[in-house]
């Protein structure tokens, strides 16, 4: 797939054949084969022990935020009103989430299943080890957090959207099962579902000044200053425990997280260009400066990566008009045709969750006589990145951050052992 020039431009300059293709046939997507996991029906599945991991609602977050200030509930109402937030609205959404969690738990217990309910801040490897299956009760963010700590491909993870009016829930069961969870359980027991093994990425870190201790961004909701301070604190703690000032990992260290959506590498300050070197599939190293680097899975191709790479109708229209004037061809620029081309192109950015390839995307690459970007995005089996940044981090699924400064080397790849076992239920 060409990266340095928009594929639409390439099509336009091919002439009338390209126009006919756009009129008569849809652009071929990057991945069109069905998910392998969805082809065969499964035997019934009924776990003995289930952990239900619940999200932190905005209401709970605001309470925790001001707890140590000794604020009363009335004080909280006034503070929220000053910020333009509705106390009653936050409480209503909190109650909806809580009621739906209770519905899930009661449904499980009626089936004789042992249930452990934990807040996302309490969720750890001990909970994962105890459970036969894990239910993420929240939205996609909670599902990503739950998945990150499940390292075995044999342990199922099921997402339930507990506030479907305010959360998209791409990774969760269809919305109707939020209120009809007993029906979902019966389908699981009868085998009326499909397993979907979603591919995930693993991270190896090596080099100088490495600190494999993560900072959890979900709970801390850190500002830039707090984020940097948190990394300094975890680095200092690690150094005090090991008695070393600058740890040098001569061999790659496998980090204890797996990425279901994407890994982002870049400077913490978004206005600062990220400087790094990149090697794709053991190819030559290339110096790059950009707004950061995203490396996603098929699951993540519908998320941030999609929004990084998608085209707007305005851009498509302008390209079509330029192509029309440069070639003299009768290229249509009607609203209907522009929408068709835009949709076909954007749909081609999405590929299957079970695809074994990575998709890397360079955000806003800087190209000059020193820095280049031979491909703005592309598929790969392995991507290596050497940091030349000052205050950078490597963020896994938007929630777990690792320090990634000058001298650090990250290798992002996939392994069959890292697949996530999820459930597909029909509506």
From TrEMBL:
Task: Reply yes or no: does the keyword Signal apply.
Answer: yes
Naturally occurring in which organism (per UniProt) = Mastacembelus armatus (zig-zag eel)
What name has this protein been given in UniProt? NAD kinase 2, mitochondrial
Question: Which keywords appear in this protein's UniProt record, sorted alphabetically?
Answer: ATP-binding, Kinase, Mitochondrion, NAD, NADP, Nucleotide-binding, Signal, Transferase
Annotated GO biological process: NAD+ metabolic process; NADP+ biosynthetic process
Q: Quickly give the catalysed reaction.
A: NAD(+) + ATP = ADP + NADP(+) + H(+)
Q: Which family does it belong to?
A: Belongs to the NAD kinase family.
Pfam hit, one: NAD_kinase
């Amino acid at each position: 797939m060409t990266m340095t020039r928009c594929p639409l431009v390439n099509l336009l300059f091919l002439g009338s054949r390209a126009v006919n293709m756009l009129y008569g046939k849809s652009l071929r997507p990057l991945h069109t084969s069905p998910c392998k996991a969805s082809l065969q029906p499964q035997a019934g599945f009924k776990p003995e022990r289930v952990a239900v991991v619940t999200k932190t609602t905005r209401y709970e977050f605001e309470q925790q935020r001001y707890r140590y200030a000794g604020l009363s509930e009335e004080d909280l109402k006034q503070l929220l009103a000053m910020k333009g937030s509705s106390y009653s609205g936050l409480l209503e959404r909190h109650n909806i989430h809580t009621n739906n969690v209770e519905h899930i738990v009661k449904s499980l217990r009626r089936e004789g299943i042992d249930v452990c309910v934990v807040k996302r801040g309490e969720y750890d490897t001990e909970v994962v080890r105890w459970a036969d299956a894990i239910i993420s009760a929240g939205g996609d963010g909670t599902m990503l957090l739950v998945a990150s700590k499940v390292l075995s491909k044999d342990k199922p993870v099921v997402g339930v959207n507990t506030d479907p009016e305010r959360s998209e829930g791409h990774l969760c069961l269809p919305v109707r099962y939020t209120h009809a969870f007993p029906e979902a359980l019966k389908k699981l027991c009868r085998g009326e579902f499909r397993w979907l093994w979603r591919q995930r990425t693993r991270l190896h870190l090596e080099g100088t000044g490495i600190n494999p201790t993560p900072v959890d961004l979900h709970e801390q909701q850190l500002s830039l200053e707090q984020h940097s301070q948190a990394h300094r604190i975890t680095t200092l703690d690690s150094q005090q425990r090991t008695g070393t000032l600058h740890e040098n990992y001569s061999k790659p260290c496998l980090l204890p997280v797996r990425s279901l959506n994407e890994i982002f590498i870049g400077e913490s300050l978004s206005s600062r260009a990220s400087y790094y070197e990149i090697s794709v599939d053991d190819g030559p190293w290339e110096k790059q400066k950009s707004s950061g680097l995203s490396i996603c899975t098929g699951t993540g191709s519908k998320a941030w990566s999609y929004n990084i790479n998608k085209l707007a109708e305005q851009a498509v229209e302008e390209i079509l008009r330029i192509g029309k004037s440069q070639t003299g061809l009768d290229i249509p620029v009607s609203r209907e045709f522009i929408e068709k081309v835009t949709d076909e192109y954007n749909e081609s950015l999405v590929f299957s969750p079970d695809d074994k390839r990575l998709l890397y995307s360079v955000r806003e690459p800087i190209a000059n006589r020193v820095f280049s970007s031979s491909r703005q995005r592309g598929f790969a089996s392995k991507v290596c990145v050497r940091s030349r940044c000052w205050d950078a981090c490597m963020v896994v699924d938007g929630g777990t951050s690792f320090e990634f400064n000058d001298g650090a080397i990250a290798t992002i790849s996939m392994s069959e052992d890292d697949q996530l076992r999820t459930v597909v239920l029909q509506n």
